Every structure is written in structure tokens, then in C-alpha cells.
Amino acid sequence: MLAAVYHGKNDVRLERLPIPKISAREILVRVGFCGVCPTDLKKIHSGTLEGSRVFGHETAGTIVKVGSAVTQFIPGDRVALHHHVPCLKCHACKHKCFAQCPVYKKTGITAGFEPSGGGFAEYVRVKEFVLPGVVKIPERNFLLEGTMLEPVNTVLKGVHKLGLLPGDRVLVVGQGPIGLLFTALCRILGFLPTVTDLLDERLRLAKTFGAQGAFNPAIQGVEEIMKKTKGAFDAVVLAVPSNTAVAEYWPFLRGGGKFLLFAHTLRGVECPIDLGSVCVDEKDLVGSYSSDFQLQSRVARLVFSRKLDVRPLLKNLFPLTRIQEALDLASNPSPKSLKIIIEMEEPPRLS
Q1: Range(s) of the domain holding residue 20
Q2: Which tens digit of pLDDT belongs to each residue from 209-236?
Q3: 270 located within any domain
Q4: Which of 75-80's residues contact partners 24+ apart within 8 Å by CB, and which partners?
Q5: Same domain, yes or no, for 87 and 176?
Q6: Are 48 and 127 members of one domain?
Q7: Tens digit of each residue's pLDDT (9 = 90 or more) over 97-151
Q8: Is residue 310 one of the residues assigned to a domain?
Q9: Domain check: are 176 and 256 in the same one?
């Protein structure tokens, strides 16, 4: 089968790999589509992990083989995959910090090598411990929609961390695909989102996703936006990894509000914060990383019912043979690019 194999920093090569073999309690999935996540890009560009491995975890495909002990799935089932599933028993899980669970940190899907998601390949092996996270895709939905369950899950988890009440005001900084999902989910849940972004195309789209106000800080300036919105937001969501934006938008948060970091996934980066405002104004600086396994069924209902319609985001599809173009565009988005998706061409037949 064809796969995009990571060998080190900025080194991804198209190679032929054996189709994975499965055990009695595993399934084999023919990948249909796989989204490119900023976390994939971070790993590729930073070279923090050793090669060789195959990334890609926002995966939807069709089951082609099930192990002899698997009873809940059959060949032909269209599924969305979930590469991390917690143990639900450890200290972290009891505190609902699933991303800190040792079992959760293990990746349960592979196209070969060290399990790393595997979605940038034509077939993936799904291990037993992540089978509870596999979701069947309804007939009425496109297979492509299944790629969005994992990113929607991460965003809904982040929204829950804000502890908002209906009618609360939220400022979402950045309107890439993740920022747009924050905007849409906030509006669906009864909150009032205002957004900022440097691309006017995305600001226009944000209004269709439920934004009450949309501002370009490169044109209007942060201070002017502060005047127009009057600040005092109950929450600020930073959906871009910008330290400058932390300092610029911290004053927009009212006392008692929460400031959510969602994109700062590189360790070792420091940023000054007025600790007096944290203490005296009771502002919370909150982090949210990865997904919440217990939200998976709710996320599936939101996406597959199209109450949260993800289809407008799914416009930039690339065949696996053009994955480098896809990675480049995801790293340097154009005004019209949104969610970058790898689309598999006709895969080889199983013998």
C-alpha cells in the first residue's frame, strides 16, 4: 500500500508499505479520508519524534477485515476512528483529565512502525483498546464528514472547560477551521461569539457560523476592537499559537472570566501574564488539549445530524500522492483554504 512516511524534521516521503496484519481482536480499515491536524504539522516541522512513522489521526474509512473475536463490526461498515481511548480507572481519568491518562497517551491505530495514527496511508490497523472509540457513519452522511469527529470533540471539550451560561459573551481569536468550530459550537450552545482573524474571507464565513461581530485586528487594531466590543467577555478562546495575542486579548476578559489556550502545544514557550489580575480579578488561564472520550456519542449526534454542519469546511482535498502540497498549504493557509483533507485514490486489493 502507499503511505506518507515521516523520517524526521520536515522529511515526509511517499513509500510502499505492507498492508497491516490484524489480530483476533482488531480491525483493518481502508482509509477514505484523513484530515491534516495542526498537531501533525507541529510534529513534522519540529522533528520532536523519531522516524519512521505514519501520522494522520482524523480518519474515516471502511472496514475491510475484522478479527475472529470482533463482534460489534463487520466488513463494509463505514467508520470514523478515534486513536486515543482512556482507561477510565486511573487518577487522571477519575478527575476527567483523560489526555493525561497513561493509556490514553498510547496511540491505538497504525499503518506500520510505531503507532502514530496512520491515516496518511491506504490501510490502518485498529487495535483492541481503541475499538470503543470507533463510530459507525450513518448512510445519509458522507464518509468525509467522519473526519471531523475528532476535531469537533476537542473543541467541544474546550468549550465545556469555559463553564459558560446561556447568553455569555465569548471572544474567539482566530477563525481557521478550529476557530470556526468554536464559533459554531458556542452559538449552538446559546453563547454569544465575537471573532477576530487576519483574513477577511474567514471573517465572512464566521458570520455564517454564528459570529455576532467579526473584526480584523490588522485593519482595525486591537484597541479599536476593544472600544467597539466594550470588552468584558466572559471567555476568550485563543485558537492560534500566538504569544502576542495572549497579551493583546487578556484585557478583553472580565473579572471571573476564563482565557482558554487551545493552540499552544509546543513546550518551553513562556509568556508574561499579570498575576495580579489572575488573583484579584479572579481570571482563569485554562488549557485544553486533545479530546474527551465521553463526549464521542454527543459529537457524533451533532455532526451526523448536521446541527453542526461541517461540510462548508471540507473544501480542500488532496490525493495522498500530493501530500506535500497539502502539508504546505496547511502550514501556510491561503485566504480561501480551510480544512485540509487527504483523499485516498483507489487502494490496492487485499489478497
Answers
A1: 2-136+315-343
A2: 999 999 999 999 999 999 999 999 999 9
A3: yes
A4: 77/136, 78/32, 78/136, 78/137, 78/143, 78/146, 79/29, 79/134, 79/135, 79/136, 79/137, 79/146, 80/134, 80/135, 80/137, 80/146, 80/147, 80/149, 80/150, 80/300
A5: no
A6: yes
A7: 999 999 999 999 999 999 999 999 999 999 999 999 999 999 999 999 999 999 9
A8: no
A9: yes
Are residues 120 and 39 part of one domain? Answer: yes
203: left (phi over 0), alpha (psi -120 to 50) or beta: alpha
Do 275 and 186 fall into the same domain? yes
- pLDDT in the model for residue 266: 81
Query: Are the beta carbons of 234 and 164 closer than 8 angstroms?
Result: yes
Which triple of cell numbers denotes residue 243?
504569544
| CB distance 53 to 59 below 8 Å | no
| Residue 76, domain CATH | 3.90.180.10
pTM of full prediction above 0.70: yes
Question: Which parts of the chain register pLDDT below 50?
Answer: 351
335 and 283 together in one domain: no
